[in-house]
Inverse folding.
């Protein structure tokens, strides 16, 4: 049954902006999603086309009165100024968009709403903490077109200078000249396969136990365990939460992921037991 559309100034408009899809929702102060829409991210017309798409999504939530909104996007970005700093997953025909102020542009179309930009992994971590089910010390990894990482330590989200979000995924990995963003990007992982499968075909291959898909997935999971180990050494989390579209795909391998993470961290259990890895 759909929720009644009652005007309430405590409603928040939330956008999850990815390189593949954009999700738009109205959320109440008691943590309920009242209205939700999902559609492919329109990249063909560049940043101007994206702003128009977001505005139309906002208009689609008719019947709700909101006074604030949050756009969660892959970085790098500056949450203080609302500027996207040439994000890796927002391109047109593989051409960079450069830097643009998405909050400024969207506010011209929706002047009465206070809008804020935040890193998608940071927003996911804030949401987990808000729900109160993940404790005080945890890490969120968003796995999709790119890789996002956010950490809570003793109840506070880790931030860099001037409140900027640490772009941990862009650090160099154990694979020469490759970042973890590259190794754990669903887009790049799919390119390692001999066939360009659709998402549906890929899921069918996985369920059917396709040899190549499972072998490539084992490599992906090993790389994932490696970055979780690195993060464990820095933040000693009790829980690691995998979120994003690709996290759903690898969810069937969560037992194997936990085993690999345990093997990586067992030499350091004098610090803290191995973190539990779950899919959000």
């Amino acid at each position: 049954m759909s929720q009644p559309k009652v005007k309430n100034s405590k409603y928040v408009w939330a956008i999850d902006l990815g390189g593949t899809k954009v999700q738009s929702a109205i959320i109440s102060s008691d943590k309920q999603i009242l209205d939700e829409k999902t559609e492919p991210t329109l990249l063909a017309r560049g940043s101007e086309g994206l702003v128009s798409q977001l505005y139309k999504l906002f208009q689609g939530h008719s019947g709700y009165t909101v006074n604030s909104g949050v756009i969660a996007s892959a970085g790098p970005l500056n949450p203080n100024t609302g500027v996207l700093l040439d994000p890796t997953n927002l391109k047109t025909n593989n051409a960079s968009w450069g830097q643009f102020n998405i909050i400024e542009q969207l506010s011209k179309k929706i002047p009465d709403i206070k809008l804020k930009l935040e890193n998608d992994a940071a927003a996911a971590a804030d949401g987990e903490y808000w729900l109160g089910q993940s404790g005080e010390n945890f890490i969120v990894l968003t796995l999709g077109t790119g890789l996002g990482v956010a950490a809570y330590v003793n109840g506070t989200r880790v931030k860099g200078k001037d409140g900027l979000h640490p772009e941990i995924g862009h650090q160099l990995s154990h694979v020469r000249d490759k970042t973890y963003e590259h190794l754990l990007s669903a887009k790049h992982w799919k390119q390692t396969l001999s066939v360009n499968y659709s998402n549906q075909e890929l899921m069918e291959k996985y369920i059917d136990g396709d040899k190549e898909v499972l072998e490539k997935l084992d490599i992906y999971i090993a790389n994932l365990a490696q970055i979780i180990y690195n993060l464990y050494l820095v933040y000693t989390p009790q829980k690691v939460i995998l979120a994003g579209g690709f996290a759903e795909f690898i969810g069937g391998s969560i037992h194997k992921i936990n085993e690999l993470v345990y093997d990586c961290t067992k030499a350091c259990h004098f610090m803290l037991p191995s973190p539990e890895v779950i899919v959000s």
Summary: DSSP finds nine helices and 15 strands in the chain. Confidence is low (pLDDT under 50) at residues 1-8. The radius of gyration is 19 Å.
